[in-house]
Amino acid sequence: MSSVRSSGVAHQFDDAEQQREVVTLGMWAFLITEVMMFGGLFLGYTVYRAKHPHAFIEGSHHLDIWLGAFNTVVLICSSLTMALAVHAAQLDRRKGTVLFLLLTILLGSVFLGVKVIEYTSKWEQNLVPGAHFAFPDAQAPDQVELFYSFYFAMTGLHAVHMIVGVALLGILAMLAWRGKFSSKYYQPVEMSGLYWHFVDIVWIFLFPLLYLIGAHYV
Amino acid sequence: MILSTQLPLFPEAASTIAPEVDALYFFLIAVSSFFAILIFSLVFFFAIRYRRRSESERPRPIVGSLKLELLWTVIPLILSMVMFAWGAKVYYDIYTPPTDALNIYVVGKQWMWKLQHPEGVREINELHVPVGAKVRLTMTSEDVIHSFYIPAFRIKMDVLPGRYTTVWFEATRPGKYHLFCAEYCGTQHSNMIGSVYALEPDAYEDWLSGASAQALSMAEAGRQIFHQADCVTCHLSDDPLGPSLSGLYGSRVQLDSGETVVADQEYIRESILNPNAKIVAGYESVMPTYRGLLNEEEILQLIAYIRSINDISGTDGGSAATERMESDQ
Amino acid sequence: MSSSFGPPKKSAESYLTAGYSLKSWLVTEDHKRIAILYLISISVFFVVGGLFAVLIRLELLTPGADLLEADTYNKLFTMHGLVMIFFFLVPSIPAVLGNFLIPMMIGARDLAFPKINLLSWYIFAVGGLFTVVVALWGGVDTGWTFYTPYSSTYSNSAVTLMAVGVFITGFSSILTGLNFIVTIHKMRAPGLTWFRLPLFVWAHYATALIMLLGTPVIAITMLLLVLERGFGIGIFDPALGGDPVLFQHLFWFYSHPAVYIMILPAMGVISELITCFSRKRIFGYSFVAFSSLAIAILGFLVWGHHLFTSGQSIYAGMVFSVLTMLVAIPSAIKTFNWTATLYKGSVAFDTPMLYAFGFIGLFTIGGLTGLFLGTLGLDVHVHDTYFVVAHFHYIMVGGAIMGYLGGLHFWWPKMVGRLYPEGWAKLSALIIFIGFNLTFFPQFLVGYLGMPRRYHVYPDEFQVFHVLSTAGASILAVGYLLPVIYLVWSVFRGERAPANPWRAKGLEWETPSPPPTFNFDETPVVKEEAYNYSPREAEVV
Ligand code: HEA
Ligand code: HEA
Ligand code: CUA
Ligand SMILES: [Cu+2]
């Protein structure tokens, strides 16, 4: 039913200009709900960290700072390649767009791969909350378990967003390869870019909150 | 189907706070009736007076009136602030126990109320209290959240697992009153009910001495647990591994993290169940956890015991009498 | 005429005749068809939730446990609350009337994102499916509030499945809100400035803000609940250092704003009805418009008034109490402005207007008793009693559903192109009003007497009130049954409706009934204020 006119403007819009504004606003609105969603977790994290500061520090010390830092760098780079992809699309550079999209996907996958490594090692160290959780040398193992609950809930939700993002970029890369985008019509790339940057920023908050707390206590 | 013969329209008011809550209630009824009647009659009057008489009517539009808007913003605002302030005062009174109250301990459990008097008398789903005495309830739950509710006293307080909550009342009229669990707690929630008996002081003393004939006082029971659970080996022995507990209750404790905390019931409970959460300065974290080994009632008894050795330093014992009227912080 | 084009052309094909196959409905992107999809699905849920209510009322007829087991009873009120709130009232006015009308009211061909609109219905349907499965599976017994640790550790019912259902349904709400916000910002017809918008649109804008900002929080809360239940991660478990009361904070952070999701759209409807049936511009337009926004914003700051007896600090209680009083003020402003609109109007008593009167009366009572609950010392006594039950039914059933039914009757001719039988409609409005008061007024009294809610058995002395209440509920059921019958009947047999049967203002009335798929042949241009019912010059009081 939605009769997309030849100009790429959907039936409900008057013109391409209106469509562009609408989509941009829609994306921002969507990101706001995302902020609220992560906000719930950040709030819980804050409450419990204030309640059990030592346990959180102890738990944090069993995370691998180097892997976390590596992943942070990877994501920052991916934000750069994503921005370059948008730039290339704006300049009608089809190959450049595809290339940078693929690079972003690659970096995203590296991030996820590292996450898999981290999760498996946590599993082997019995640091996954639940029946198998064990944290022998802690003063308060239960509260350390709480820390890991937040660790998995927060990074897990973030990883889900990463997976969605990688899939999204995959589709975009394919469309870009077929020449769907041009300097006149590159909004999907731009919007996915917004999403990707958002997911990066979430990680920028997660990294210090989870990996770096209490380093001065060491 | 039998309809009960009497039709109560208003609950009995049997505590000192009840008339205060009722007065507040009447104030709200008055304000609400005023606005409700005002609005209903205006709507009714306008609707009738300005009913449509012909299809061609074209009433003159009215944009609005800043004066009126201010009027009906400011008046409700003032009235609602009165409600707030009055309500806050009553609320403060309900949840701020006086210092000279009689302590009674409550443990909620799916689906019953277990109560214990300092003299050691235990009751299940029943609570006997003297009229004219202030009674403070210290409550906790062994499982889910419950809520301790005595409508005739107009008090209610949630009973949480892992924490102590308190509420107080002073009964003013002898009688038997409903005790309800007001927080949904599972299948038999509506059967987690009981009765509160407010007795004249003499009758209460009779009841208490009759019921407590063979009961151990809470502090005494706590003392026994203190020995059975081997707390003595580290606390109070000649060569203490752990800090002495006499004089602890209500004092300030220096922790090894540098903070100081007040040793209240909550702190002692945590020290027993989760000893490593807060370490006393100068000691090792060697105390084992008693989670799963002691139940909530036993912990309350231990606390009663630790309270009782406050002024009689170093020695075992302590009498229920001192404990009963003892002030808290 | 408020727009530049003449009377609608007769030949235009209506959205209803644009296709008859099931597929033409299931893959439609037309906001009007999606509204109808929603209408059908929420009506089903309303009847289901209503049947649960009927069973509850029957059980409560006697003090003992005569009809149902304790466990069944607990599952019934839980499912009743969940179905009525998440699957009926939250989507009711926004997803049906809002969906249908917002694009037409602002002169647009559709919502900003038609595909997302359809997606939101499918998400709703999947969430609904979970609920149906849960109901067949044996139900949930936690109360609609899912309080931990009962829900996370102790309940043996299908909590996880239901929480996932609520989680999913939340996204349908988010997407609807997102669509409305963008549409209202960017798709208004030329000349339709913010202060010319119908108040229905303003109300939905405020509602959409809450949907967008609040719903993600309930989603994450449900997720944590599922994790806690599945893996024992300890966030709400005191034994592991978690805090069960944190759940209550997170839950009400959404669920209090959610009560305004349920009432604001109804308030929007009432503004339309009052103006149309008194042929007058609304009194104090900007006050009514901004009070919606004020409610949406302040509504986020008062969640703690559900926790006055939960052991939160008494000072926190005081802050929440003050804020609760403040959030009541914008509602007061609206009520007075509606009343003042009638002054010197030309008041007609058509069915929608009867519902509007019903709304004003019942919402006022419900809202004023909300102040009782917001008053700290008093709430200690009435918290978790039938006083609360009466309060929220007065607002939700007496207020929001009256608004919904009023709106449904008002726009019914537009939606289906047929008129309903006025006599029957008036009769059932009356029956609903009487039945409603008989059902829920006694609950205030028994609540103050101390009857706790969620009680399957109760002391004998409360019985009189419960008998009255059950009697009222059976009248109420008849009152709701009638519209179901005559509205469905009217779709097939009703008299054909003219484009504007009420001679109302607003762009939606300038399309034929039922409207064509793209609403307007030409984008209308707006040159006047909303509710410009009279050519006479406005008076300033
Ligand atoms: C649509 C739904 C809806 C709406 C709009 C409201 C509106 C309000 N609610 Fe209600 N409420 C619920 C649905 C709703 N509520 C539900 C479902 C629950 C129970 C949940 C559960 O536990 O299961 C609940 C519970 C609830 C509680 C917790 C009670 C308890 O559990 O102990 C409180 C406490 O403050 C409260 C207060 C209010 C207030 C102050 C308003 C205000 O917004 C009302 C404002 C309106 C008016 C004030 C009337 C109009 C004004 C005038 C006529 C002028 C005069 C005014 C003044 C003098 C100020 N509500
Ligand atoms: C939108 C929300 C909504 C609506 C519309 C209703 C509608 C009704 N509710 Fe409910 N209710 C809630 C939301 C709602 N409720 C919530 C949130 C709770 C709290 C749950 C909890 O504690 O967890 C609650 C709890 C609740 C209780 C308290 C249970 C308890 O605490 O133990 C009661 C008791 O009387 C009750 C009664 C009713 C009745 C009689 C109706 C009537 O208005 C229903 C009338 C409707 C019908 C009868 C269906 C329509 C009928 C037909 C189409 C005709 C066909 C049917 C027949 C012929 C029978 N409700
Ligand atoms: Cu215990 Cu309800
Ligand atoms: Cu609320």
Structure description:
The complex is a heterotrimer of chains A (218), B (329) and C (541). Chain A has 218 residues and is an all-alpha fold. Helices cover 75% and strands 0% of the residues of chain A. Chain A has six helices and no strands. The longest helix of chain A is centred in the C-terminal third of the chain and has 37 residues, at 141-177. The model of chain A is unreliable at 1-6 (pLDDT under 50). With 329 residues, chain B is of the alpha+beta class. Chain B is 36% helix and 19% strand. In chain B, helix 1 (17-49) runs antiparallel to helix 2 (66-95) and helix 4 (218-228) crosses helix 7. The longest helix of chain B is centred in the first third of the chain and has 33 residues, at 17-49. Chain B starts with 16 loop residues before the first helix and ends with a helix. Chain C is an all-alpha fold and 541 residues long. The longest helix of chain C has 36 residues, at 70-105. At the B-C interface, helix 1, helix 2, strand 7 and strand 9 of B face helix 3, helix 5, helix 8, helix 9 and helix 10 of C. Residues 256, 259, 305-306 of chain C line the site of copper (II) ion.
Q: What is the helix/strand order of chain B?
A: HHEEEEEEEEEEHHHEEHHH
Order of helices and strands of chain C: HHHHHHHHHHHHHHH
Q: Which structural class best describes the helix and strand composition of chain B? A: alpha+beta
As a percent range, the share of strand residues of chain C is under 5%
By helix and strand content of chain C, what is the structural category?
mainly alpha
Helix content of chain B: 25-40%
Please outline the major beta sheet of chain C. Answer: none
| Model regions low in confidence, pLDDT < 50 over at least 5 residues of chain B | 1-5, 312-329
Kindly report the average pLDDT value of chain B: 86
Rg of chain B, nearest Å: 27 Å
